[in-house]
Amino acid sequence: MMQDHSKPNRSNKSRAPQEPFIPVRVRLPRGQESIGVITQRVGGSRMQVSCMDGKNRNCRVPGRLKRELWLREGDAVIIEPWEFDGDTRGDIIFKYTKNEAEKLKRDGLLKTSMNEF
Question: pLDDT digit string (tens) for 27-63?
């Protein structure tokens, strides 16, 4: 009996399987906190953040989060404005994942002109 050495039909394997929609829970800002997008890294754990309240702030990563948060330009974050000079400065306290940022865009909480996500 002859064995069939031809390759199996791989057309179905090349397509990625369709995953069912999984709801994403997203942390929302509380109190004075605001959502923003990192526009520029300045150095020394400081970054320029364009906030959704229309202000640009020079934000820093607090010491307790320096090793925990790895941030790049275009990342969506939650910032907490300082009590003193809060219109121009703040602390970055949370970073959204890609899926969370997409959900924020769908819900209308994150408005950006760029397609960074």
Answer: 899 999 999 999 999 988 899 999 998 999 999 998 8
Q: How far is CA 23 from CA 20, 37, 98, in A?
A: 10, 23, 14
Tell me the three-class secondary structure of 41-85, residue by residue. Answer: ECCCCEEEEEECCCCEEEEECCHHHCCCCCCCCCCEEEEEECCCC
**Domains of the chain in sequence order:** 34-107 (2.40.50.140)
C-alpha span between 117 and 112 (Å, rounded): 10
pTM: 0.73
